[in-house]
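no rush on this but wanted to send it before i forget. theres a chain ive been looking at and ive put its sequence and its fold in token form underneath. please have a look and point out which stretches look like helix strand or loop to you. thanks a lot i owe you, the record is right below:
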Amino acid sequence: MIAELRAAGFPGVEAEGDTIHARLSASGAEFRAEPDGAGWHLSLTWPMRASAAQIAAWNAAHPAAVMDLHRGETRVSLRSETGLPDLILWAALAEVAVTALVRWRRAQRAPGEGM
């Protein structure tokens, strides 16, 4: 999977045991790739708690990249079995997720509160 992630253009690819860490872009969010049976589980967590309505709307619009709450943070996940085609899909959906998560977090902030 390390070679596939690099071939797909993800920077910062590093292995830590069976878990692989990579970035969506050079200055972008980090995600994880973990072995999952015959494939890989790709996940990105974001330090905000999406509402049940936001999660439901995301999952209805993006069934390939499921959103849930994991350890108090919002997580987006995709199971990869096909390598490069799934990684291209993951790159697009993860970027859309980050955009939504930033927008949702900004909407939660009180005036004068930092990010």
